[in-house]
Amino acid sequence: MKHSFLKTLDIPLIIITLLISVLGLFFLKSATYTYPSNYLIKQTIWLILGILALIAVLKIGYLRLVETSPILYILSLFLFVLILFIGDPRLGAQRWFQFRFFTFQPSEFFKVVLILLLSRYLAYYPHSLYLNRGLAEGKYKRNELKEISVCGCLTLLPMLLILKQPDLGTALVLGFIFLIIIYIWGARIKYLFFIAVCSLLSLPLFWHLLRGYQKKRLLVFLNPDLDPLGAGYTVIQSKIAIGSGGLFGKGWLSGTQSQLNFLPEHHTDFIFCLIGEEWGFLGGLLIILLYLFLILRAVRIAALSKNRSGKLIAAGIAGLLLIHIIINIGMNIGIMPITGLPLPLISYGGSSLITTLCAIGLLLSVDRENRLSH
User: Fold this and answer.
1) Confidence at residue 114, expressed as pLDDT on a 0 to 100 scale
2) How far apart are CA 42 and CA 26, in angstroms?
3) Among 170, 202, 326, 332, which has the highest number of CB atoms less than 10 A from its own CB?
4) In a 10 Å sphere around its CB, with 0-12 CB exposed, 13-18 middle and 19+ buried, how is residue 33 labelled?
5) Tell me: the pLDDT tens digits for 104-144?
6) Is there a domain that residue 53 lies in?
């Protein structure tokens, strides 16, 4: 039984996930070497809990979780409202529930919930081109637009609540998940273009909704020297850290920007800077290649899935990982604005780590279901 169970699992996906996670602990040890708190022990505990969550998701199966997604969605909305009143404020944001031994960030887990919900809804409505074959073109347009609009509303409401926290990075991720899923579902390019145009036209309104420090982050992205000792400080130090690493890096525990604490948040959002400084261009390239392999496995699972919801879930998770990696590494090297998105499986943080491992569990479940159906 054990042998046959292993045959239904994507072993390369499991190996690459564990490898990145273990490397994350290795990098975190260096990032927190001079810190008084033992972040490494906490992250190791979260990694173990995340692996248990992955196994639980795999055992439950993605089909059952898809059916419970409306309940999870409503519960998440309730938590988003509640957190505005009793959440733990940190660094100008109110995104966490503080308990005695741990903190909980609902918006991290909601990324997976949204993937499940949109996949559930669109799986019941196959693309209108196939659903209405032989019907009038007007009927085809009307159905497709309605389904996209419903998914848009399901995404927009939590986005607004998350922006209120405020959490610009997560709100952008939810929007990207929405676009990826409706594109894989079969939405025509003109509708995606229309959504993009509407988003651009709403930027002036969006700008007025941002907090002062968020506006500063966007302005210093265009010109870091605008506030070199304030909002632009982290961007400048991150570029120095990565640039000083050269081809091979300075060696483990030998980074000056990180070990001397010139670089803020180098154990969370800016841990890639530490990788670049201590392990150089080749170390950073290795991490990017490992992530590329992980995403390609997710794309492969999506392409091979015979179940509509399974295909959309795998594509959504591939998009989730991709946007996190692009934005995080981009802001570390100064080509993206700072948004506070963690590097999957590497950055310190329990909510992010456990959520990512649950997402990997969903990928394994989709792939396993597909193998069993053959």
Assistant:
1) 96
2) 13
3) 332
4) middle
5) 888 999 999 999 999 999 987 665 444 443 333 444 444 78
6) yes
Residue 92 within any structural domain of the chain:
no
Which tokens belong to 80? 């988003």
Question: Is 104 contained in some domain?
Answer: yes
pLDDT score at 137: 42
| The dihedral sign for the CA sequence 257, 259, 264, 270 | positive
What residue has token string 């909704």? 209
Other beta carbons within 10 Å of 197: 10
Taking phi over 0 as left and psi of -120 to 50 as alpha, with beta for the rest, 251 belongs to left
Q: Which two tokens stand for residue 71?
A: 């309940």
Number of helices followed by number of strands (H, E) in the chain: 16, 3
**CA nearest to 234, candidates 311, 362, 337:** 337
The count of structural domains within the chain is 1
- Give the tens place of pLDDT for each residue, 219-259: 777 777 766 766 677 788 888 888 888 898 898 888 888 77
How many whole angstroms separate alpha carbon 226 and alpha carbon 216? 9
Is 165 within 8 Å of 107 (Cβ atoms)? yes
Q: Is 94 left (phi over 0), alpha (psi -120 to 50) or beta?
A: beta
> Which residue carries 């992980």 as its tokens?
294
Kindly report, residue by residue over 274-289, the tens digit of the pLDDT: 999 999 999 999 999 9
pTM here is 0.89
Q: Are 291 and 27 in contact (CB under 8 A)?
A: no
The range of the structural domain enclosing residue 175 comes to 2-87+97-372
